[in-house]
Amino acid sequence: MARDISELVSKLTLEEKASLCSGLDFWHTKAVERLGIPSVMVSDGPHGLRKQDMKADHLGFNESIKAVCFPAGCALACSFDRDLARELGETLGDECQAQDVAVLLGPAVNIKRSPLCGRNFEYLSEDPFLASRIAASHIAGVQSKNVGTSIKHFAANNQEYRRMTSSSELDERTLREIYLAAFEEAIKEGRPDTVMCSYNRINGVFAAENERLLTKILRDEWGFSGYVMSDWDAVNNRVEGLKAGLDLEMPSSNGVTDREIVEAVRSGKLAERVLDASVARILEKVFKFADNRKERNFDLEKHDALAGRIAEESAVLLKNNGLLPLDPAKAGEVLYVGQFAKKPRYQGGGSSHINSFRVTGALEASAEIAPGVRWVEGFKTDSDAEDPALAAEALAAAKQAKAVVIFAGLPDSYESEGYDRAHMRLPENQNKLIAEIMKVRPETAVVLHNGSPVEMPWASGAAAILEAYLGGQAVGRATSRILFGLANPSGKLAESFPLKLEDTPCFIDFPGDGKTAQYKEGVFVGYRWYDKRKMDVLFPFGHGLSYTSFAYSGLKTDKTSITEGETLSVSVDVENTGKREGKETVQLYVRDTTGSAVRPVRELKGFAKVHLKPGEKKTVSFALDKRAFAWYSQELGDWYAAPGEYAVEIGRSSRDIEASVSVMWNTSQRLPFHVDLNTTIEEILADERTAAVLKPMLDKMEEMFKGGGGEAANEAITPAMINAMIANFPLRALRSFSGAGNEEIEGLLKALNQAASGR
């Protein structure tokens, strides 16, 4: 039914309007019964439904309903599959309708700035393009069921240490290209009903009262029309937050901030129209859900099957020398080691923790897939200390087996919401036993259960490594299906795996001094950092193996030159050249060769996952617009692609480029350029608008420098030295080295600025 929200707002008292801008309790909005305004429920997500009814809390101390735990964001992003993300969203939307939940709090798209961030398991990627596209599909899926989403945590929330007070200090280009970009396209494409602001300050201003962030960028630039809610207890100053664009405070303030709003309106400190706008935005989404309630079946079994399929699609085969897949007929010769084979670590701790109705371990799943697999514990998962008896038992069993699979990973205590990791290592008892088993049984595979990268000092000795991440409640079934070849791995890393923590871009600056976190690495996050510095990594962004092989051919574009307003179509053929059907993720990167700015070597600007039978070939297509070639210019206050040549690259990862084609970008747009007396000759010559103006005087200078010195002088003052000196001269130096007077210099300065401005 169509509702007149404006009329409804006009009927509310000031006190009622203020009350609607904060929660009733931990999970519900307030109702106004006399006007038929219902209370609706929001619930944690995004990889499952954590609905609490009675003793509610934010961090998961109290019980929630039995539900399905799907793979966490760290795993889902490795699927590189938009359709799968949408299917997950649709399923969660049905669950929310079945449980009368109006808004699912997710997806979480904060960039993985450091592997140590305690909440990285919930986030999607180090790359904003990948994060935004997976998030957009997830949002569209949930909201197709008339359930809202709340994309979070907006913005630059990349650590847990002092997250409620620390200030993320970063320049505008870094903010726009990396940290806002993950949100921008997800919001523009997915159109979430709500956005959740983060706890932290951004350049000194709390996100919850940051007008530039919540209104000027989010609403005015990006066209967001939903409401902004706070993260739980993120509000610093309620009235200033409301002015800035923060509509709903969560959870309940027990009436304290409601009274502050009323007093601010009555005293004239807050315009009532600002309050009215917030209330209208909230009510629009409340009624969107309330007026579209549908009975849905929360089919736990069906959704468990989906959780297993997503886990299969998301697991990344990092290394394989031919050990995998194992032969199910020889399962009796296989040894599983580790408690995680029985009881996997499949999700992280904190507000997203799901009360799973079932958890399937790999050992249990293997009993059906490949009966006869043996198991030993090997090490304690809740301790770093070695257990000599368990280790000895595992080594003895490994000697007798033909193949060993070690299930390793991070304990629950290592990564969780609320605190950051102290290091990037697995527990030492795991590292030691893995290395020792590989000595006696080289045919050893390692399955990892972790929410973010770990160092692998034993990697070179492993016959195979399968990154299962935190793969949800069915991860054991998915893992065993991959190990025994019933499923072909197709995941690709959504983040780089560095060799060691000291290699990471923000190693020196993370997590900061508690008051500020300095983002000194700028736009060079993740693979952008490692590729630019030509650093070795353990496994690169986008990497992932298969049990089959794929060949690329026929890369082409529909034009060799594009200009403003045009779109470049790119296509490439992919063929399955192996003996198994499988899926390949085609990754498209763009490389700027113009030299107009310091930029990453290449940046992901497209991806597509394609299913191929043996011998089958398909054409994959992409469309690139200006944004694919652009960087954010702080001078221009906008996205800018310099005219010149760019490389469009197709690769298997950021380090494995299969094909490349060059295209020209043509534009009349130029960066602002103002010449003053300290502008160098080199800068003036680098801009074609000003180079021609300066050339006559430059010719005069060169004549002066030629001189007629003797042999010693010519040895001391070389042409290379002269050219370098002239290039570095500021314009004011022409008074000394060209003989020009002040009037001539002032005339030249005026002519240069006229040329630079296009006049």
TrEMBL record:
GO terms for molecular function: beta-glucosidase activity. SUPFAM superfamilies: (Trans)glycosidases, Beta-D-glucan exohydrolase, C-terminal domain. It comes from the Bacteria. InterPro entries: Cellulose_deg_GH3, Fn3-like, GH, Glyco_hydro_3_C, Glyco_hydro_3_C_sf, Glyco_hydro_3_N, Glyco_hydro_3_N_sf, Ig-like_fold. This is Glycoside hydrolase family 3 C-terminal domain-containing protein. Residues 584-654 form the Fibronectin type III-like domain. GO terms for biological process: carbohydrate metabolic process. Belongs to the glycosyl hydrolase 3 family. It comes from Teretinema zuelzerae. Keywords: Hydrolase.
